[in-house]
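for the writeup, i need someone to sanity check this before i put it in the appendix. the sequnce is what the collaborator sent (i think, or maybe the updated version? ugh). structure was predicted straight from it, no edits. if anything looks off just tell me and ill rerun, i have time this weekend
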Amino acid sequence: MTNALLRVMPEAEYHAETKSGTKLSSHMLMEFIHCPLTYHQKLTGEIADEQTDAMFIGSAAHCLILQGDAAFNAAYMIAEGPVNPKTGTPYGRMTKAYKDWLAVQPHPVVTPNDYAVIAQTRQAIWRHNDAASILSQGLAERVVDFAIEGEPCHARFDWIDPEREILADLKTCADLDGFTREAINRDYILQLAFYLRAARAAGIAIGHAYLIAAEKKAPYRVAVYEVEKGSLDRADTRIVEGVKDLRAAREAGEWKTGYEGVCPLAYPPHMA
């Protein structure tokens, strides 16, 4: 049974709401926690929130892996781009000729090479028994509106299955050996805890919160991590504190960097 509060919403519309400051997303909350000034300047447009090639390929991978071929073909096109008549090879992505061509295409363009990587990543995920089981049943890219401490928020789940009480977030990465450190540095646990709050607001109980990590190069290794409850609880505390600090900063009109004053610097104990 589909929860009526789980909405289908175009990705561009969701991100537009986030960028306008109308609703707080997990990414913007993490931005504030890491640096309030960066958060503020991204909202005002003083810092351009540009999509890198890696981010673009990650979005395309999410679409193909989680939503399937039909959704991918409706949202993207696969093409090499214009060919340089002097060399007989495609123009580079940073050339004016390529950018001019890209500007008139009906959909964002994924190169054949990038598509091959995404397709192999998908195959690897379906070969991984646990990842395949998690994604065998559920809903992709659903949106929930909710509030934290009175602050309007929204969340876009990669994957949620209310029947099995499963929440999963898909991450593509360069090397699985460094993924646990990446997960900590990039606050993936806090992101999942934010989604758990959204799920509860929609009346959905979640018993298992997973990160599915997939490499973007051969041998395309895949790992599934279940985030422990204690870590999610600690992340949830940080979320509430972060939202309170955000509201206080907004009321005071003060957007700090976190490096005000004089910071101490010393050798770590093992080097003393």
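The CA atoms of residues 19 and 43 lie 6 Å apart. Strands lie at 7-8, 77-78, 109-110, 139-148, 151-161, 166-173, 208-215, 222-226.
thx in advance!!
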